[in-house]
User: What shape does this take?
Amino acid sequence: YARMEYVDAAGEYLKVSGKNDPYVYRQLAESYYNVFNSKEAVKWYAKATQSNQDAEIYYHYAQMLKAEGNYEEANAQMQKFASLKPNDERAIAFKQDPNYLPKLRNQTKMFDEKKLDINDEKYSSFGAVLTDDNNFYFTSARNTARKTYGGNEQPYLDMYMATYNADGSFSEPTPISEINTKW
Assistant: This one.
């Protein structure tokens, strides 16, 4: 866990999770939080918060509950967070508008989301930018020849470029060798 190898850490903590230890539950929850496995994080935060925790744990728990669509329980955890850290900006914002999520859903949609044929279902890809000259840049963990990052067991990230074609398709992405390093 201290080396940010959260997938491995979760595996190790799972081995001792039957000992009814709030510390182990917390570490499991935080490990899953850090790799955004919200379902498992919620499960272990629920156990961890059966004993008193610091404010950040309640905040993280609330975020994972929101990711799972459990807004009512998320608000309950945010209340606990806000009571422990009343001057925190996140607590103040929550107290001013605890039910902001339904309002967000009712806003007019500004962008369309589309899965691209260059996306890889298994590996992270994000941070896309389309330039005026139709170059499409993005970050991806698609290079399976690279070492894996212990935090999420995916290859280290590289930058890629593809060309956006007039028909809406993309050329095959190529790594940007001037930026990417072997590490």
